[in-house]
Amino acid sequence: MLATARSQIRVLARDPILLALIAIIFAAILLFVVYPLIMVFIASLQDRGQWTLANYALIGERRLYRNALWNSLSVGALVGLIGVLIGYVAAFVLTRLNVPGKRLLHYLMIVPIISPPFVSAVSIVFLFGNNGLVTRQLLGLQDFSIYGFHGVVWSQIFTFAPIAYLSLRGVLASISPTLEDAALNIGASRWQVFWKVTFPLSLPGVASAFLVVFIESMADFGNPLVLAGAAFPMLAPQAYLEITGSFNLARGAMLSVILLLPSITAFAIQRYWIAKRQYVTVTGKPTASTSKVVSTPVKALLYASVLLFALIVLTFYAVIFIGAFTKVWGFDYTLTLDHFFYVFNVGLDTVKDTLIIALITTPVSGIFGMLVAFLVVRRVFPGRSALEFGSILSFAVPGTVVGIGYVLAFNQPPLLLTGTLTILVLCFVFRYVPVGIQSGIAVLRQIDPAIEEAAQNLGASALTTFRKVTLPLIAPAFFSALVYAFVRAMTAISAAIFLVSANWNLMTVQILNQVGSGRLGVAAAFSVVVIALVLVAVIIINAIVTRMTRHMTMVKF
Amino acid sequence: MAEAVQIRNLVKRFDSPDSPGQSVFAVRNASLEVAPGELVTLLGPSGCGKTTLLRMIAGFEEPTSGDILFGDRRMNDVAPNRRDAAMVFQSYAIFPHLSVYENVVFGLRLKKMPADEIQKRAERVMAITGLTHMANRSPNQLSGGQQQRVALARAIIMEPRVLLFDEPLSNLDAKLRDQMRVEIRELQQRLGITTLYVTHDQIEAMSISDRIVVMNGGVIEQIGTPREIYARPATRFVAEFIGKANFLKAIVLDGETIDVGGVKVRYVNQRQPGEQLTLVLRPEAIALSPDAGDFRATVKRAMFLGNIAEYLLEIEGVGEWLVDSPNPGESGLFQPGTRIYASPSKAALHAVE
Predict the structure, then answer these.
(1) Residue B20: closest C-alpha in chain A
(2) Which of A43, A104, A435, B327 is most buried when burial is the number of CB atoms within 10 A of its CB?
(3) What is the CATH number of the domain that holds A304?
(4) What is the pTM of this model?
(5) What is the CATH number of domain B246-352?
């Protein structure tokens, strides 16, 4: 082992820049991913400088914490189940059935992914809140409350079902319909074909989608903060309240460790157990043929349910949009631009801050992600799998935990970063780079390594190879990494809320504050601005990447 | 410019993927000297270690032990991008995001060579390889043969110390393969670059090489000119891998005679009487006759292949022989079941280990 490591380092040492780069990446991941987590653990085990388990004992002693844990777990499980059900139906309809409007429906399914995390929460307040359009104005209900369990569950379903949809879409698209044809051909009924062939083949994907939604739901901060209400405590907002409300870092840290454990467990199962059981049958042939497994009435039913979901998503966005132009929702529906004036006067600094942070985060995170993917796939060095694990670990860590970790880790010299732009950028880069790394790895594994060897053979150093050959070749992954980083930087809340300051504030935090102080119109206007900026950025990034790789469209791998 | 390549006791050991702790030898103790300007092929079945050996020379694999020298300079610790050993890859490895011209000048641009010098060299090389009129095309608009030429042009424009080919023709169809083979050989001789060429195709190896290195199971079995390898194979493996071969069991009678299945055959040797021998006999070195000859035989199978007839004979008291008989169109075919006589050409007998 040691001899292997030594010879690997010797090979790397021929390219000193590469060796230095790997060392820097290792150090950065240790410092900005692992170290803050350790600080959270340490803080949770201390009370006024003494080592103690007293904080954890509070889970047993205090009803509030017990409830928060139970509520978070049950919401996560339920949202996971319903989200996967919706995601599966939508993925099945949009990949396997011949129905009209598939493209449009696909986009409607995924818009919630690129919008601020609590668009659906704010819409639900607009529609079903105390002065909700539906509950108060239309139905005239007096004592109906959306706040609590069902409010959070509803809102999270519309936020996270699209994630299940996207991952199940990939799974279903990779199951060749010829397998279903074969089963029909040897005499299975349609019902049997689905339950004996299609469903078992997609089962690992279903489990994986469930766990991803579960992780997202557990970590979610925005929806619970808007919709949970005081009577329904949940872990992530509770940890936040402990720290900002009662200045009790130890308890906040303890709650975030409790929050971390189920997430990490789910992540480990998803990654190391289920991922190995995926029956992906990549043949290189597009599976264009449609499924014959579904009879016409069932098809109509499935299609109708997807339409319904898309319609609700559309409604949510329409409500936000109209709400942004409405004087006082619930009382005075006159159209107005006041909320936007507010956003561009009082809130202008926040808009600028958010954009600056996102514009720095995006290229850094994109290039860093591709670089790590390149190193992990194409270079051999000791600790390679540790590097891969460390770099995607933050995907499984709830933002609340990261936020608290950063506050604990970087609030004193020499690493006094709290309140700065740097801490926000670092937090976003390391939090959102895993998606770029993963898609970079996936694309890179499909590219013949000989192409990069050829560059080296012609005299290119490792970094030149990366810049001139690898990066243009993995442009699709680079593009998605850039878009993802930008979208997340614009819409992040759970970690960022611990790190914003008077100098550097974020629009998402503003949205939450406005909701908190009852100014829903301003919140809606901020949301509309965020969505507009994200759309513009996606278009610009797309144009840049397309130009950068103008030959690529003609190339097939 | 042309430089000798020396390989001394080169070993490549991998950790076994199946049983951890165990190791697999891809190359065992290989030694080889390639003279300046010589073209040497590494020939063997897949998995024999030839590609690993080539990749070690290119610097993509790290030798477990042993030395690689270009001229008198040890290359083991030189990074692949500093070895000046241009390689033509089996998959061509053309940069799909660059045009043909950009592909060809990729290496020169990295060297920061002046633009007019690059231009000049590119024009010459692209003329030699017949790419002049497709400089601005994208690689995916090219046929397999054209892509092959791009890969070749990209390597030779570097005027490298050593040129490496990794099964460059295996993705082409048969006709194009024959044509490119000739072109590569002519180009190599014109430029005089020391060349190592990996292939599993014995005809390709025979037709272009100054010398052939036959490998099997990570071991070099024989190094020699195509003639030597064919006429005097060192081992049974070499004899079987290069062309077709019959193996004869014989017992030495004296310094000039051996016994093959009861038939006395003249074979000059320096062995002890009574010693057992295995001899190689090529199918085309056997003459057939309906009435007289050394061995009595029965035709078991006869195939007309145009330029030759291929027979499987049962030789009485010896076993089965393959025989290739020239010009069957003139003399007609011996039908299966026919009893005939077979006479080996005495000069073609060659003992193997």
Answers:
(1) A1
(2) A43
(3) 1.10.3720.10
(4) 0.78
(5) 2.40.50.100
